Amino acid sequence: MHELSIASSVVEICAEQAHGARVRRVTLEIGRLSAVMPDAIRFCFDVCARDTAVEGATLEIVEMPGQARCLACGATLEVDVPFGQCGCGSDDLELISGQQLTIRQMEVV
Predict the structure, then answer these.
(1) CA end-to-end distance (rounded Å), the chain
(2) What pLDDT sits at residue 26?
(3) Quick one: how far is CA 5 from the chain centroid?
C-alpha cells in the first residue's frame, strides 16, 4: 500500500510548512489516473498525523478527472484509463491531466 508512504509525506510536508502552528485542514488534489486510492489516503492520513501538528486536521480530497489531447485532431477528451480513443478514431493521445497528486491548500491556526 503506497498510500501509507504518500500520506506520511503529506503530513511531513504540512507539519514542516506550518512552522509550529496547528494544521486545521489539508486539501489534496488527486488525479483519477494517479493509481492513488482516496479512501486509503484518508485512512492513512489520520494514522500518520498522530502526535504531529497535523493531528485532528480535516482532510479534503478533490478528485481530478483524467484528460487527454488527441494528437491527430487536437480535441480534448475525458478519459478514465491512461489510454483511449478520440471521436475522430485516433488512439494517439497525450495525457494532460489526471495523474497529479498535489497539496492544493493547507489551513493553519
Answers:
(1) 31
(2) 98
(3) 14
For residue 7, how far is the Cα from the chain centroid?
Answer: 11
Q: What is the pTM of this model?
A: 0.84
Cite the DSSP H helix spans in the chain: 3-18, 38-49
Q: In which element (H, E) is residue 83 found?
A: none
Q: Using CA atoms, how far apart are residues 87 and 70, in angstroms rounded to an integer?
A: 9
How does pLDDT run across 2-29, given as a tens digit for each residue? 899 999 999 999 999 999 999 999 999 9
Rounded Cα distance between 12 and 4, Å, is 12
Biggest distance spanned by C-alpha atoms of the chain: 54
In sequence order, what are the residues at sequence separation of 6 or more whose Cβ sits closer than 8 angstroms to the Cβ of residue 33? Answer: 66, 79, 81, 82, 95, 98, 99
- Per-residue pLDDT reduced to its tens digit, 47-65: 999 999 999 999 999 999 9
Which cell numbers in the block locate residue 89? 478514431
**Cell digits of residue 46:** 489520520
